[in-house]
Amino acid sequence: MTYTQPFFALLDGTPDGTPYPQTVHDLGVLHVPSGRIEASDPYVTLGEGLVVRVEPGSYPAFVTVADVSEARDGSHLREAYLSLVVSDGGPVAEVRGVTPEGAEPPPADEHYGVGVDAGTVGFADAEAIVRCMPPEDDSTDWYDLLFDSGEPTSWFELMDSTDHYWEGSANITMPLATAGENVVLSHSGWGDGFYPVVTTHTADGTLLGVHIDLLVAGPDDEDEDDDEEADG
């Protein structure tokens, strides 16, 4: 289904249609050996997010950051899109809302996406999460073990680091990885909420990318209320 919201992912400068200058920042690559990309709030629903199929491979990841400060002086930056580039096959001709693996197409004017409760979104290989994250039980909790362990390698510390890609984002190898299986994370623009997952395509339908639209450069609030979410 064609996605009709304004869309400016991976565009530097101030694209026509948005008042906010943007910069695009490299987050390394995401390894997707299974061809099953999961989008989730990784601090809350890692392993339970919606899944989109692509060809198995390793894909460049980027965060598009918008300057929403009144003076456009860089004093107020917000993440606008988290993106995976699947192909460089040409210009974007169409943006589509995804239909996740195992789901029916959404009703008109609804979109599948990521529900966020920890101010963060992420991509990972869905099958790698099962293999490469330690099992959680009464004595092992990912939050204390990995997310906020107090160590320099904790996920919170890496996201806050100005030396690790871009502050507010991270590219983290899962603890039981054997071939670099990883998670790419980003703060979610305005914070908690619901954010559509979409794909970009060339005129002939070739898949170019998978994106989480963080609705920073989207419609006015009253328009957003008309674009109801579909469970994802």
Description:
The protein is 12% helix and 35% strand. The chain is built from five helices and twelve strands. The chain has helices at residues 42-45, 126-132, 142-147, 155-160, 221-224, and strands at 22-32, 36-40, 50-53, 57-67, 77-85, 94-97, 113-116, 120-125, 169-173, 182-187, 193-201, 207-213. A hairpin with an 8-residue loop joins strand 9 and strand 10.
Give a brief description.
The protein has 5 helices and 12 strands.
Largest sheet: 7 strands, antiparallel
Number of helices: 5
Radius of gyration, taken over Cα atoms and rounded to an integer in Å: 17 Å
Structural class: mainly beta
Low-pLDDT runs? 219-229
Reading the helices and strands in chain order gives EEHEEEEEEHHHEEEEH
Percent strand equals 25-35%
Helical content band: 10-25%
Mean residue pLDDT: 92
| Quaternary state of the chains | single chain
Number of E-state strands: 12
